[in-house]
Amino acid sequence: MSTNPSARTRAAYGTSAVGSLNSSKNTVVSESGGVQHIPNRRDSSAPLIHSPSVQQDPLNVGSPINGSYRSHSHTGLFRRRRKSESSQESDDDEDEDDVELNTSDENVEESDDDDSVYSSDHDTIQQLANGDVRIRGLNSGEGPNEYRREQTLLLEDEDVEITIRGYRYNRLSLLLYRICCIATLGIAWLVFRWVPTWWVAWVGEMIPLKDAEWLVVESQYKEIEIIRPFRELYNGTLGSIFSYDQIKEEILALNLNTEEARGLLFMDEPIQQLMLAEYRYMRFAFHPKLHRFLIIGFWKDQAWNSSKNFKIGLSSEKYRARMSVFGPNLINIREKPTTKLLTDEVLNPFYVFQIASIILWSMDDYYYYAFCIFIISAFSIIQTLIETKQTMKRMRDMSWFECSVRVFRSGSWRNVSSVELVPGDLIDITNVHTVPCDAMLVSGDCILNESMLTGESVPVSKAPITDPTLRKMNLSNSGIPAEISKHFLFMGTKMVRVRGGDNVSAATAIVVRTGFSTAKGALVRSMLFPKPNSFKFYRDSFRFIGVLSVIAFGGFLVSSVNFIRLGIDSTTMILRALDLITIVVPPALPATLSIGTSFAISRLKKLGIFCISPPRVNIGGKIDCMCFDKTGTLTEDGLDIHGIRAVVTTGQGRKLFDDECKSVSHVDPNQDDVNSTQSKILQTMTTCHSLKIVSGELMGDPLDLKMFEFTQWELEESGGALSTGLKPRSELAALQAKKSAKVGIMPTVVRPPGGRQDLNMQMEVAAANDSPPVEFGIIHTFEFVSALRRMSVIVRKLASPTMDVFVKGAPEVMKDICTADSMPEDYQERLYKYTHSGYRVIACASRQLVGVKWHKLHKLKRNEVETGLTFLGFIVFENKLKPRTIPAITTLRNANIRQIMCTGDNVLTAVSVSRECGLIDQSAEIYIPRFLKGSSTDPDSELSWESVLQEGDELSPDTLQPHRRPGQEQRENPYGVLPQPYYLAVTGEAFRWMVDHAPQTSLHRMLVKGAIYARMSPDEKQELVCELQNIGYCVGFCGDGANDCGALKAGDIGISLSEAEASVAAPFTSNTMDIECVIDVIKEGRAALVTSFSCFKYMALYSLIQFTSVTLLYAFGSNLGDFQFLYIDLFLILPIAVYMGHTAAWPQLDQKRPTASLVSKNVLTSLIGQIIINSSFQFISYWAVHQQSWYTAPVFDPDGENIMCLENTVLFLISSFQYILVAVVFSVGPPYRQPLWTNGRLVLTLSILVALTIWCVLFPTHFMVELLELEVVPFDFRLLLLFLACLNLVISLVCEKYLFSRLVVWMGHITKKYQRRSRDGYAAVDKLYGKIYERVMDEMDTL
Predict the structure, then answer these.
(1) Nearest to 792 by CA among 872, 906, 891
(2) Which stretch of DSSP H or E encloses residue 1304?
(3) Alpha-carbon gap, residue 556 to 579, rounded angstroms
(4) 533: which DSSP letter?
(5) Contact by Cβ (8 Å): 1178, 1112
(6) Angle at 720 between CA 715 and CA 723, to 5 degrees
(7) Could you write out the DSSP letters of every residue in 1193-1219?
(8) Nearest C-alpha neighbor of 36 from the set 220, 233, 206, 217
């Protein structure tokens, strides 16, 4: 019998997510329960080492090692292929997907399990026989090969493609490597640690994956990790490790004959040895027949085809086998020991350079300076160490979860730790407060708060899984489809309410995924291993450091020649020459680049905007396209009912809409008037929803809540909870509930206001009048499915012999499932009017359900229920704009930042809201797509783009340019202005077809002209963001709910409007629930980006100023003194570099974005110009002192330091001014940052340093002269130095503000003129424009 969670349990599981329990390292279990002892093996979580004896590793396994970046397109969306890729194959897949999207989980025919499996096998093999193979983009054409040495694998969660290669040690090469490391005193070891590909190439030998001693895993971003697989004996079957659906998908991607396919689909084949590997907390297992690694976290038992099979639970033998395969149910972030963290930090190239510099300075007698830099470096390392430990602890505390759970195992219920759960365990969730794993609800119902995962604050109802859904459910991918997620309980989500199936028995769920394979685990992995940042600034900064290193090497050569001429001994010569490298490449450079970002994050936090990805702050400064969700983002969360439009039948038999009704209080629900549908609409509003009562309060979708509250009716759940807060339930409802409980159906009851209190009176009246009281029981619910865009309920009126179906949904889909004779004649006219005015319209329909018994309800298929309906009318909602929406949109438009609305709402409603908020011009024409032939899945479909304002106006389907039909006269524009600018309002279906089948030119033009994207699914929102990025836009996305998570993660910046603390799917989370936060993020991003450039330029120029000084002094064997270096670096540079980043953002957004490239003309012109100016003034000072009558040449002492001389004094004093004035010149103000004088800390620092430096020049004390090793010069020459410093400042400022900018413009004109002359086709045009969308816009303007 298992015990409750304990320290012993945590210790057993806490070591590794791959490690087995306690003694399982030395045992193996099988599905049949056999236990075998195997030899001790190395712990799987330990990193790969160079040799078995010395536990050292050239790699920091578990942490990505960055290499060079390569350009890539977004591959994370598994969308349909474009027309050019096997059109016939695509057609079949499209039809398959279309059926999937337009069918609910209740649509699958019930069949015997064996027949279902056989049919699936037969279909798969038949596809192979017919050559209908689905190419997934990976491993296509590669059959099983036991000698396979490498493979590719797509990690869907991370949107990363990895390559896995098998290696073993080449013993001779390994021996030579060790000898080389010893001979070079560890330098070779250090280099190979930094460049692991060299180490792999030297000591490794590629071998088949099945025999690999260690694996090299390389991502598409050139990140490399080395992991060691571990093997253990295993007497289970392939089906106990790999999912049937997973294998089916794999063989469809291979060229196999029918017999090979049959063999691979045989899941009961025994497996003798289990080979596992773990990469970034994700488990892989080696398939012995496919000869490749597969992810094993997304597994489905073949026995999961009926909920009855869940009730038997797991045997002890199966539990132990599954624990050995899937590991403990724990999101355990392995913390590195402090010594390991310290070693990794110290051996970072930056700190190795620091250590080498300190040693060099000490050897050159710069003891004070070396000691101070050592203290600063040590403090920095310790601070980084503490921050890393704290961050890992926070992450560990956030992700770690353990509780006691009741589980049904070996025929009895027992309490175990949640860590011990494995897939297939049946658990009791009645007393669970936080879901401990990903599970499927088997019995009962519950309401969950999923804000931790999605940011959506509205609780979500969950229903038990059905057998048809089970049979078609595919868990081989990480994502859970919407039609299945309503049965899924996700790990980490909070239970709001749990009820048993009949209010007596327990609510149960079956464990599906555990540990890092869960949705929460994927979220934690995304935070631990974010995508590498390919931002230009970061790439260019490393390149620029390389350029500085080349300059240092040049100075090294020149100085060496000069030292040989002077006869300086070789040791001093080498030390001084190497010293130049430490000067030109400033050690503090990497640290200063993050200063502006840190201050920006701090300022955003004060505004209620929280950032979990600091690099995204700088990227926010480059945003040129912003996408917004509509409801809850641009508009208010809540919807108000504008009115009801019922359908009436006139005396002539015509069906028309009735007058708009603002209230339903006068409607009698008992009176079914054949000439009006008002009563039926009221019944729809009171029953067709998914509202639940939690703690006496109605909870659910805001639209449903507003609709039900509008009726003022009461809702009573089967447990007796009442929406009005009254505890007792009606006797009649109790009897009905008791009756229905026998067949497992517990109805929710709705009744008119005050209905329960008057029930006894009503029953007495009913007995007299022979008419029952008004009560409706909601018997069965078909939940809202985004693909179907509707929901429906089956309702029974009290004492009624029949049941009714009520459906509500989008008008576009409701028209297709209603009978033609029930549709009013003015349907399109009324719908157009409301949607065009910005209202949200919900259509209602109903029909009577005849001849269906209660116990057969759960077998009803949705497509049979939702057909042949009678149209009832419209419920019209109004959605008001948020107060700050219009000012924010106006600000973005004035800043030349493109705005796009991306919503799931009706296209005409979206157009109206866009006009109202100013997202599109009032005078602009809008074109909406319509399929003339086919649908979104048909490659041969024809799409027409029609005007909203002027009927008959269309766009050319090829150029997407306006043209009018021949002979058509110009009609008056409703807005009174000719519609010269125009936009596209794209529907989800049209977007789908354009992406999949349209020519690339047309797709690009749609992306450039599209301002509104309506009826977009969550995946399509994400895909839109990716497509915009592919044509060169830097895209941001702002949304507020679950539907936006994918787009928030895909955008260059994602801003979630959510109060949920764990809406960590987005880099930014704003507590202010309006889009004003977008302005703040962009402003702070621009300020941070400009600050990073300023700091970088300042540090680079500081190095080159010092390089110039030292190079001039080296000409006669002199150098700067110990305390001179100390004064410059500690008292001048450090405080200036820190406080330069404290300048706040400029309050307005400028039309022009700051540059993101260090090699741009603006940056290089400024930097090179300032280098020339400041170097010139040093040369002038150097020349001036030689022209003085009192000048005496220094006496060179080959064995001395030769520091005290007039040249040293003059260059030190003039350069001290230059370090300060350069900070003033590079402190960029408007239009991206506040003026310099607003930065009080920097102004105070500069004032103190200027005063201190002037004091050193004009009135140096004896102590100062001795400490800084200065020569005393005449006062008039000191005034000359002060004048030169002032002149230097003036020239630098004037050139920076006026000359350099004009020079850049002039060079730009020359470059463009040259490119236009030499351009040849699109290749030259691409170079001219730089981004695809710029070229497309220019093409459309010139047509």
Answers:
(1) 872
(2) helix 1300-1318
(3) 9
(4) P
(5) yes
(6) 30
(7) PPPP-TTS----SHHHHHHHHHHHHHH
(8) 233
694/600 Cα distance (integer angstroms): 41
Q: Which residue(s) pair with 776 in the sheet?
A: 750, 797
Task: Supply 997's token pair.
Answer: 């089948």
C-alpha 1120, offset from chain centre = 50
Report which DSSP code applies to 881. Answer: B
d(CA 122, CA 128): 10
Torsion, Cα 1012 1013 1014 1016, to 10 degrees, reads -160
How do strand 1068-1070 and strand 1053-1057 relate by DSSP bridges?
A: parallel
pLDDT at 9 over 90: no
DSSP H helices in 998-1075: 1000-1009, 1018-1030, 1045-1050
Q: How far apart are CA 1210 and CA 1271, in angstroms?
A: 9
Residues 6+ apart with CB under 8 A from 325: 234, 236, 240, 241, 274, 276, 285, 296
Q: CA torsion 532→535→541→542, rounded to 10°?
A: 30
Q: At what angle do helices 1000-1009 and 1018-1030 cross, to 10 degrees?
A: 100
Task: Supply 853's token pair.
Answer: 């018994």
Burial of 627 from C-beta contacts in 10 A (0-12 / 13-18 / 19+): buried
Is residue 1009 within 8 A of residue 983, CB to CB? The reply is: yes
Round to whole Å and give the CA distance between 165 and 209: 7
Token reading at 183: 């001979």
- pLDDT of residue 30 exceeding 50, the answer is no
d(CA 582, CA 353): 8
Which two tokens mark 684? 């729809």
Span 1068-1096, pLDDT tens digits: 888 888 899 999 999 999 999 898 888 88
Contact, 1096 vs 544, CB < 8 A?
yes
Which pairing describes strands 488-489 and 1010-1014: parallel, antiparallel, or unpaired? unpaired
Alpha helices in 215-348 (DSSP H): 244-252, 258-264, 316-326, 338-346
- Give the tokens for residue 1184: 């001036």
Token readout for 388 is: 């890393």
Backbone φ and ψ for 902, nearest 5 degrees, come out as -130, 105
Note the pLDDT tens digit of each residue in 1118-1151.
888 888 988 998 889 888 988 988 899 999 999 9
Q: Is residue 1322 helix, strand or coil? A: helix
Mean pLDDT over 1297-1305 rounds to: 87
Looking up tokens 């001849």 gives: 851
Average pLDDT over residues 142-162: 80
Q: Where would I find the H helices in 58-142?
A: 87-101, 113-129
Q: Which residues contact 833 (CB under 8 A, 6 or more apart)?
A: none
Strands 404-409, 412-417: pairing kind: antiparallel
Q: What angle do CA 82, 88, 92 make, to 5 degrees?
A: 90
H/E element, 1176: helix 1161-1186
Q: Torsion angle, CA of 357/363/368/374, rounded to 10 degrees?
A: 40
Q: What is the pLDDT of residue 769?
A: 53
**pLDDT tens digits, residue range 969-979?**
444 444 444 44
The per-residue pLDDT for range 1184-1210, each reduced to its tens digit, is 999 999 998 888 776 666 788 999 999
- Listed range (79-93, 343-357, 1276-1290, 1317-1331) with the worst mean pLDDT: 79-93
Which residues make Cβ contacts (< 8 Å) with residue 1321, sequence separation at least 6?
none
The CA–CA distances, whole Å, from 1088 to 314, 1139, 1237 equal 56, 13, 18
What span, in angstroms and rounded, lies between the C-alpha atoms of 45 and 276?
A: 11
Amino acid identity, residue 578? L
DSSP 282: E
Q: Is the dihedral of CA 1061, 1065, 1069, 1073 positive or negative?
A: negative
DSSP 480-494: --HHHHTTEE-TTPE
Give the residue numbers annotated as catalytic, written as ranges: 629
DSSP reduced 3-state for 94: helix
Provide the 10 A C-beta neighbour count for residue 110.
11
